[in-house]
Give the backbone structure.
Amino acid sequence: MGAKVAAALAVAALVALPPLLPKYHLEVLISVLFWAYLGIAWNLLGGYAGQFSFGHAAFFGIGAYTSTLLLLQVGLTPWVGMILGGALAAAFGLFEGYLSFRYGLKGPYFSLVTLAFAEMLRVVGVNTKAVGSSLGLVVPSAKAAPAMFMFSGKLPYYYIILAMGALALALTWKIGRSRLGFSLAAVRENEDAAETAGVDALATKLRAMALSSFLTALGGTFYAQYFAYIDPTISFGPSVSIGALLPAIVGGAGMVLGPVLGSFVLTPLSELTRYALRGRAGADIMLYGAILMLVISFLPQGIVGLVRERRARAGQR
Amino acid sequence: MTWGLLLQAGVSGLLLGGVYGLVASGLSLIFGVLRIINFAHGAVMMLAMYTTYWLFALAGVDPYLSVILTAPLFFALGVVIQKVVIEPNRLAAEHNQLLLTLGLALFFENLALVLWQGDFRTVRVAYSNASFMVGEALVEVPRLVASGGAVLMAVGLFAFLRLTDVGKALRALAEEPEGAALVGINVSRIRAASFGLGSACVAVAGALITPFFYVAPDVAESFNIMAFVVVVLGGMGNFVGALAGGFIVGLAESLGAAFLPGSLKQLVVFMIFVIALLFRPQGLFGGSRGR
């Protein structure tokens, strides 16, 4: 009961408070929700299906580039472009997933193949003039045009990413309770046993892949519209891949709220270290690396895992 | 004309290949024994390059001579990393250990950025520009020394693994961890030795390339990814395969550079990587008898 009240209060605060926040705090909060969103998308494949992707930047970049190129070249609104980008990313994810799963790649091998695909797209992006090469693409943002996913001020972007996060969360929650969710858990825990019990492991993993890559691509379009600039290193580089998986791992992989909790801890932490150590290039990320090692060492199951363990222990008494 | 280009690309590839081979041998050794994909391998190489640079800049120590110092120093660093960071989390999920090395890589790279800023530094020695011709191909002496030295070191490592007790224990642990523990091998000590040896390998590779390669905090990122490619090609945990894989990747990269514009050469390397992962995840040469 207490948890439900706390959750309702948290949702109310997330909806009602932001208009009152100063600009910098609003930016941090957008950042928190943005990484939480990518974490939720990653969690479907990395957490629920147990396939540790190290290259979600591939899908993120496909989303960002598809909607932005369509906007720049044929004037298509990113609201439609993001869906097309998502579809393209899902197709790419299915291709990548089919190849990897068909040939039985697991664990670190799967991680490496996803990293390689993202890096390949980055190299292609850097070397292709038609998509702006390493100079990147500037998204027009001078005047507000809600129909074109362009707004003045930060607040509309806040509510967009909040809605995206809420929808993705609801989808994850729903999947967790569906037939697909049980198949995913079975495949993650023991693929051979799941197959024996009649679960089509390949199809199950591919579904997770398609959903995860689709959602990740929508995040790419949001990024492009919000920051109004993308380039191959930002879009396809390892930082996005790492940024998508860390909230889920630190919060608790394979658990609905894991990525949200993870991002609410990690993102302000990284903002705080950046602020505290400003003027000393690298010091903030150095500290972040150290904190990452500590968190992984002392919270191997993530924050949600720790809470559950506490509760289980309290229950035994 | 084209033949000259091809010959030059071949020579450059071979000269690069030895260094890749040594970097990858170290990574493969760590993977073989610990089953960890070590994302901090490149960062260790970068630290060794700075060590070489400072020994040269402050004390005038020749980069090749400094290997005598860097190898044991980075063996010790590897042992400390294993004992302090990895070993306590040995039973955690595979991906947690990968993230530990990622955190370590971020830490080391940005430590270098804090201490020495992002400037490119170079070690200029008398032989930095020495070269000779083989037919139509130019051979740069420092690159030849680096590749030759790397191969020598890799052969030394191979002999060590074959002939010494510690080496045999390492291989036993790579093949059958439980069996190794049962016959009385001190497994935690051997694990530390493997991380130490792997780090020493990459440190020597780093020292050998400083006469012709710039030093910067992010210099070794590309080597790290390349080393993954090489290790997969050679078969994870297969040290001889890693050396051979180094030459294949070196050749692929320089041939790609000769015939493709821009940095598309990397695309060739990644394609080889993906194809190898899909069709021969056990490596081109049979690979280790891993799990």
The beta strands of chain A are 137-138, 229-230. The CA atoms of residues 305 and 311 of chain A lie 10 Å apart. Chain A touches chain B at residues 52, 99-100, 103-105, 107-109, 111-113, 115-117, 119-120, 123-124, 126-127, 242, 246, 249, 280-286, 288-293, 296-297, 300 (CB under 8 Å).
